[in-house]
Amino acid sequence: MQENYPPGFTYADFAPQFTAEFYDPHQWAEIFQASGARYVVLTTKHHEGFCNWPSKYSWNWNSMDVGPNRDLVGDLASAIRKSTDLKFGTYHSLLEFFNPLFLQDMANNFTTNDFVARKTMPELYELVQRYKPDIIWSDGDWEGNSTYWNSTNFLAWLYNDSPVKDTVVVNDRWGTDTMCKHGGYLTCHDHYNPGKLQKRKWEDCSTVDKGAWAYRRNIKLSDIESTQDLITQLVEAVSCGGNLLLNVGPRRDGIIAPIFEERLREIGQWLRVNSDAIYSTRPWLFQNDTQQPGVWYTSKKNTFGESVYAIVLKWPRSQDFLLASPQPSPQTTVTLLGYSQPIDWSKGKLGGLELTIPVIPFDQMPCQWAWVFRLDKLNNV
User: Fold this and answer.
1) What residue stretches are annotated with the Alpha-L-fucosidase C-terminal domain (predicted)?
2) pLDDT tens-digit profile of 198-231?
3) Does pTM top 0.85 for this prediction?
4) How many C-beta atoms surround the C-beta of residue 349 within 10 A?
């Protein structure tokens, strides 16, 4: 700051530079729909306390009073609901690093909660009543427990009396005593990927930029996760009963950087071929193959029993490809999603299912990254 900004420049002086002149919520909505996402979560307020909606509890520190001079939350909520089938969620930070009320509560060892009563909770009620979110993604809870944050009273109202009581979903960040224990679903920590089946529904909240959640002007191409790696994260999460919440940081002018947009669209391109292996699936008996590395499984009930999806992260190098976990029956059939011909198979010498991988011209491959074999009428379903 001392090297690049005038003497006396404060954090608040950044607010007028947050202009969002190119912010087009309908364009954002189209990108998110094209990505194959089923829900979107907008940061309505992060830890510095700036509200991206005209909150009456954040005078002159919100997007209507300073900077963009518009309701960023409301505009995106309207665009999502008007032109997509995505669920709309709101991220909200409980704490604010610089708020004097919060700093006073902290100085009192959180024996007082004036900040909660006068700022955080009124904002949350305002968000719910004004925008009726499908998801509330709480954060910034780590300084105090759920009693300090008065979380249980808010959640009781949310689930019993709020306008979204029958539809809303919340995460697990409501105090130091709740993360990875209590919530509609568990996030546990950022980039959470347990790699094995969990007893509770969970979410991997991760980033396209390996090094940051916000947009960085000095980002390098090597800092960006590849499409292959992002699809791998998605597949691993779904196989173990989780979701993937993928972060892209917009620029201050309201643009989602083209490299981020490309990653999202390429994930959507993959999902258009392989959605059957992801949407409405459940974890199978095995999450990954017991012998073949880079193979993850999902499953789905159907009219004749259950389909199992073997998601192969790298195209097999040999014509014979053994999957050790599935046990075939004489009626078993195998198909490659996006490919019109059935896949030949045989029973492995020591069990399992051995696939005969077809020779497919590169320009006729169903997708570029991970490939899905659908297995029907197995013995072990």
Assistant:
1) 287-375
2) 999 999 999 999 999 999 999 999 999 999 999 9
3) yes
4) 8
